[in-house]
Amino acid sequence: MSRATSAADGKVRAYNxxxxxxxxxxxxxxxxxxxxxxxxxxxxxxxxxIMGKLAREWFITRADEIWIGKxxxxxxxxxxxxxxxxxxxxxxxxLDREIIAxxxxxxxxxxxxxxxxxxxxxxxxxxxxxKVCSIILSSTGDVEAKIRDxxxxxxxxxxxxxxxxxxxxxxxxxxxxxxxxKANFYTRDLFAFEGPLxxxxxxxxxxxxxxxxxxxxxxxxxxxLFGLRKSGKTSVIFGVERTLNSNNALxxxxxxxxxxxxQRRWNEALWYIVYQLRKKYGLADDxxxxxxxxxxxxxxxxESEIRKIHDKLGQTNILIIFDEIENVTPGVSATAxxxxxxxxxxxxxxxxxxxxxxxxxxxYLIVGTNPTCVEQSNFHGKANPLFMxxxxxxxxxxxxxxxxxxxxxxxxxxxxxxxxLVYGKLTEDYGGHPFLMRHVCSVISDNHKGxxxxxxxxxxxxxxxxxxxxxxGKYVQMVLEVLETHYPEEYAMLEFLALDDIDDFKAFAAxxxxxxxxxxxxxxxENTNGEYDFRIDAIKKHLVRKNQYKKLATxxxxxxxEISQRRNSIEPKLxxxxxxQLQAHLGASEARxxxxxxxxxxxxxxxxxLSYKELFDTxxxxxxxxxxxxxxxxxxxxxxxxxGQDLERFNTEMRAINHLRKDAHSGSLMEDEMSYFRVCMNRxxxxxxxxxx
Length: 693
Known about the structure:
Layout: E1 12-15, E2 18-21, E3 31-32, H1 36-39, H2 45-54, E4 58-68, E5 76-85, H3 87-93, E6 98-104, H4 112-121, E7 129-138, H5 143-151, E8 159-164, H6 165-170, H7 176-185, H8 207-218, E9 223-226, H9 233-246, E10 250-255, H10 259-262, H11 266-280, H12 298-312, E11 318-323, H13 336-339, H14 343-357, E12 362-368, H15 372-375, E13 378-379, E14 382-383, E15 392-394, H16 400-413, E16 416-418, H17 420-429, H18 434-447, E17 454-456, H19 458-471, H20 473-486, H21 488-498, H22 502-511, H23 513-521, E18 525-528, E19 531-534, H24 537-546, H25 556-586, H26 588-599, H27 601-607, H28 625-634, H29 636-639, H30 647-665, H31 671-692
């Protein structure tokens, strides 16, 4: 039965049971464009019926068939439709563009069905097609399981809605399709990406940066990009590669942390670049022998080879991208010939000289954490070839608008709508660091698993932030660990600032302005009228918590409080270690007898009826600090690998901590005694942390 359905401007006419909607309507109603009618003859009977059901909730704008494969024998035929979302799907799933629906009537589901999505997407303007979602309809009964298996190892995959022909046609549920979307949208945590983003599907906020880098390359200029770990540098590299590929331009990424590169000497590293370029672009049959790249001839051979590659591949300028440059930078490289020899100097002398003669053939992009490699004037008494020769920038933190773009888009796909205030708080608390902000939102997602769609306001955000700051310090530490490991002076400045040791911070800032510039460039701190403060509150909290006992205690009360807190914190952990180690080596029965013997005759008589585990429960047993020391001392062979191999030192430090606690309680503790307590306790805490990790 035909019927007219009103569009926003009232222009409508009925056709073959489907509403033919004026495409200029502001509010999209369900139906089917008249051009789809002719294409329906290419669809099977079941598929035509499915199109009819789809047209009740979507507006079908296009339909046709495609072939995928090298030849007729090895080809597969699929039908497709483009579905324009109506208001309901726009609101529930943040869908504005047309969705690709692929029809497959093969008996067995083929992985190449997913390729059909890409083939169709390339047929239309990118802004027309929705990237985050597609539908696959299959006559195969286990289509959901097949697609789930194919996508489980790809966390960046788009959301695929799998539908079975028979189930869809037989369903009388008016919300069947909507519930299928919910089941696939709302169950994924799109915030929890750990690795760099290789695709542009969930890539946000760095487009201008990518265009700047590509623009400099197209102008035959070099570039440098620096930033903290997990700030998005590698994702930018992938974005640069995608942009170059789309323009048929050439690039190669040299991962400097790969031992295949950094274990080679400077001249052999030039061969490695040629090898990677030829392998990437299918020229591996003509790779030169590595021995030709001798220290004397490497420059000449590399220049000849890079020209050959350039000419064979269409005379397009090649971008050589050096990622993780610290791994071949003097002073921080773990490889001796890059760290203390002159390989870095020789390598960049060669590349810079060749670039100056061949800037229309190749340029390079240097990526890393710290720009020392381009800021330091010399290494080991020799001029640094990169000094002041490359324009570089730090990867910028997100502002509120980019935070809103990323968090809002991902959230709405998952059925989470954020209050506008949350975007500002996220940006302020985490300094616009996209990795940290996403993982805070991952906690929010986890807190509201069964409540989609859900609205998240200030209260829900604060709850998630507190959980993240308390339980997920590893993410903050991950961001800082390169500084802590390779740039201790800059890391120390952060500690000074976190502990309000402003004098030492400003002393470093005055002596080495580069350090302060780097910390500002990373987005960690900011300078307002000469006063420095953290941009990322979570990092300040982490450093304060990690270094809470480094700040000098000035009063007896503060000393007593620190000793009591640290002793009370570590003692239960020591009991766990003792209990586990004894039981592992002796068994519960023999271990129980040993503990009772060490506790002495009075306690043995009192607690002889307790189980082995109960002996370590301070609510019912008095197994104290000195008992712990005696047990470890008695069975040192069970514990020496945990507590540092030196029994005498272990006994001395355990006694000192116990005695210093009593001294502090009496108020008679001196600063030198407090310093010794910290030395002993720091060592013991590190041993315990390593064991319990």
